């Protein structure tokens, strides 16, 4: 099952023998002078190095000096440039600290912030994942139907109610689905996430979701949408896992909608209920298209009846008729993925000496504390967010015997400090202005 293991091994770089002791070249160090504290030597010999650059942060692979384990260090630079960016970071940190789910990335620690007057950047430690679904899909490594099933199972498990069903991720794409060498998958990057909005009168932004994975209701200018937008993205990724290519790879939002209607056919008037007038008029001007869902069988030899049946339930134009994460998990296509995951990959079932594998009573666990957005009330200025964020980070560190900070004397510090986030041109295109 190992997909990323061998590839990862090629990137191990041995440091030259005359390097200073580890404590001097590691980026992370203890933030306080603790007499009994000793730096634990790293469990492997990899130097700190960059592993990913997203729209909202830079990620490095580093060693935690407290236990010698490799972890991911995410730098969120220029947090307090404007109210939108600092609220996004605050929300993402809150979510990273709130979620405790095997298929959702969570924060292990946050680096100790400086005095609030010098507080400009936020650094979060998370578990280190060796790869992501995008890298795996475009790699030459074989993807068996077992892989597809166990990946899809974990994506839906991470999205399933009540853990995440009320939280709209809004940017689920292969690059945001991290995978480790055991094929364990974790959903990450909650920078765009928000809670499901029960009031249909409240307008929500359409500036979400990388275009290829954008649900038709968002493409058609719906002012309100629900967790169906994430299921649509998961459906696109399911097809991409089967076919090893992006399902709807269009150059513009209009063409994106065209590719979708080529496959699903022209939607009915009822299925376009939430669309804006301009988008509805655009589709009405187009010649009527019949559905061509049988094309999904040509994705690959793994596109069996069961696979295509589930895929067709996810790729439904009308979000109200689209399958939910919970119902998708109950689909027979995922039975093997569930079995494989809980036989050898999960943390919830245990091997015992006497009676073999002891399975959990609840394969898709319940989150008892729903995520609440009340913390966003009153965040009216950058200064207020800065103070609350500073306080929140200090609160998170209570109970940590040794808080961490950056080591400016380390050999990697300069390149870490200068690493930047994506340029605006690399960000997803804006939604189409219909009117
Ligand atoms: Zn389990």
UniProtKB/TrEMBL annotation:
<comment type="similarity">
    <text>Belongs to the protein kinase superfamily. Ser/Thr protein kinase family. MAP kinase subfamily.</text>
</comment>
<keyword id="KW-0479">Metal-binding</keyword>
<dbReference type="InterPro" id="IPR003527">
    <property type="entry name" value="MAP_kinase_CS"/>
</dbReference>
<keyword id="KW-0460">Magnesium</keyword>
<dbReference type="GO" id="GO:0005737">
    <property type="term" value="C:cytoplasm"/>
</dbReference>
<dbReference type="GO" id="GO:0016055">
    <property type="term" value="P:Wnt signaling pathway"/>
</dbReference>
<protein>
    <recommendedName>
        <fullName>Mitogen-activated protein kinase</fullName>
        <ecNumber>2.7.11.24</ecNumber>
    </recommendedName>
</protein>
<dbReference type="InterPro" id="IPR000719">
    <property type="entry name" value="Prot_kinase_dom"/>
</dbReference>
<keyword id="KW-0723">Serine/threonine-protein kinase</keyword>
<dbReference type="InterPro" id="IPR050117">
    <property type="entry name" value="MAPK"/>
</dbReference>
<dbReference type="InterPro" id="IPR008271">
    <property type="entry name" value="Ser/Thr_kinase_AS"/>
</dbReference>
<keyword id="KW-0879">Wnt signaling pathway</keyword>
<keyword id="KW-0418">Kinase</keyword>
<dbReference type="Pfam" id="PF00069">
    <property type="entry name" value="Pkinase"/>
</dbReference>
<keyword id="KW-0808">Transferase</keyword>
<keyword id="KW-0067">ATP-binding</keyword>
<dbReference type="InterPro" id="IPR017441">
    <property type="entry name" value="Protein_kinase_ATP_BS"/>
</dbReference>
<dbReference type="GO" id="GO:0046872">
    <property type="term" value="F:metal ion binding"/>
</dbReference>
<comment type="similarity">
    <text>Belongs to the protein kinase superfamily. CMGC Ser/Thr protein kinase family. MAP kinase subfamily.</text>
</comment>
<keyword id="KW-0963">Cytoplasm</keyword>
<keyword id="KW-0547">Nucleotide-binding</keyword>
<feature type="binding site">
    <location>
        <position position="74"/>
    </location>
    <ligand>
        <name>ATP</name>
    </ligand>
</feature>
<keyword id="KW-0539">Nucleus</keyword>
<feature type="domain" description="Protein kinase">
    <location>
        <begin position="45"/>
        <end position="334"/>
    </location>
</feature>
<dbReference type="GO" id="GO:0005524">
    <property type="term" value="F:ATP binding"/>
</dbReference>
<dbReference type="GO" id="GO:0004707">
    <property type="term" value="F:MAP kinase activity"/>
</dbReference>
<dbReference type="GO" id="GO:0106310">
    <property type="term" value="F:protein serine kinase activity"/>
</dbReference>
<dbReference type="InterPro" id="IPR011009">
    <property type="entry name" value="Kinase-like_dom_sf"/>
</dbReference>
<dbReference type="GO" id="GO:0005634">
    <property type="term" value="C:nucleus"/>
</dbReference>
């Amino acid at each position: 099952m190992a997909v990323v293991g061998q590839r990862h091994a090629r990137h191990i770089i041995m440091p030259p023998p005359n390097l200073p002791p580890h404590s001097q070249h590691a980026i992370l160090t203890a933030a306080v002078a603790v007499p009994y504290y000793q730096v634990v030597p790293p469990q492997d010999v990899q130097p700190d190095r960059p592993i990913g650059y997203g729209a909202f942060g830079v990620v490095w692979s580093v060693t935690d000096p407290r236990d010698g384990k490799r972890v991911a260090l995410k730098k969120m630079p220029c947090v307090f440039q404007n109210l939108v960016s600092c609220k996004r970071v605050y929300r993402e940190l809150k979510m990273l600290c709130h979620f405790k789910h095997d298929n959702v990335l969570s924060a292990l620690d946050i680096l100790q912030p400086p005095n609030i007057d010098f507080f400009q950047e936020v650094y979060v430690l998370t578990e280190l994942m060796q790869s992501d679904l995008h890298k795996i899909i475009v790699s030459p490594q074989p993807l068996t139907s077992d892989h597809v099933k166990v990946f899809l199972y974990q994506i839906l498990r991470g999205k399933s109610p009540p853990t995440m069903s009320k939280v709209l991720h809004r940017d689920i794409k292969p690059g945001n689905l991290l995978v480790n060498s055991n094929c364990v998958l974790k959903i990450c990057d909650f920078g765009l996430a928000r809670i499901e909005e029960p009031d249909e009168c409240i307008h929500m932004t359409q500036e979400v979701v990388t275009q290829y994975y954008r649900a038709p209701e968002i493409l058609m200018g719906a002012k309100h949408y629900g967790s169906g937008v994430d299921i649509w993205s998961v459906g696109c990724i399911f097809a991409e896992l089967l076919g090893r290519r992006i399902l709807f790879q269009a150059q513009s939002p209009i063409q994106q909608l065209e590719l979708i209607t080529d496959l699903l056919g022209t939607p009915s008037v009822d299925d376009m209920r939430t669309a804006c007038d301009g988008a509805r008029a655009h589709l009405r001007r187009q010649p009527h298209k019949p559905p061509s869902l049988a094309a999904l069988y040509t994705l690959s030899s793994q596109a069996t009846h069961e696979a295509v049946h589930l895929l067709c339930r996810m790729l439904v134009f009308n979000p109200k008729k689209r399958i939910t994460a919970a119902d998708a998990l109950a689909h027979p296509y995922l039975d093997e993925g569930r079995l494989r995951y809980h036989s050898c990959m999960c943390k919830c079932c245990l091997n015992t000496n006497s009676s073999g594998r002891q399975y959990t009573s609840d394969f898709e666990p319940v989150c008892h504390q729903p995520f609440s957005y009340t913390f966003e009330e009153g965040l009216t200025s950058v200064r207020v967010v800065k103070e609350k964020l500073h306080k929140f980070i200090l609160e998170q560190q209570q109970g940590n015997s040794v808080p961490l900070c950056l080591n400016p004397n380390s050999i990697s510090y300069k390149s870490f400090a200068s690493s930047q986030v994506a340029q605006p041109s690399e960000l997803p295109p804006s939604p189409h202005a219909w009117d």
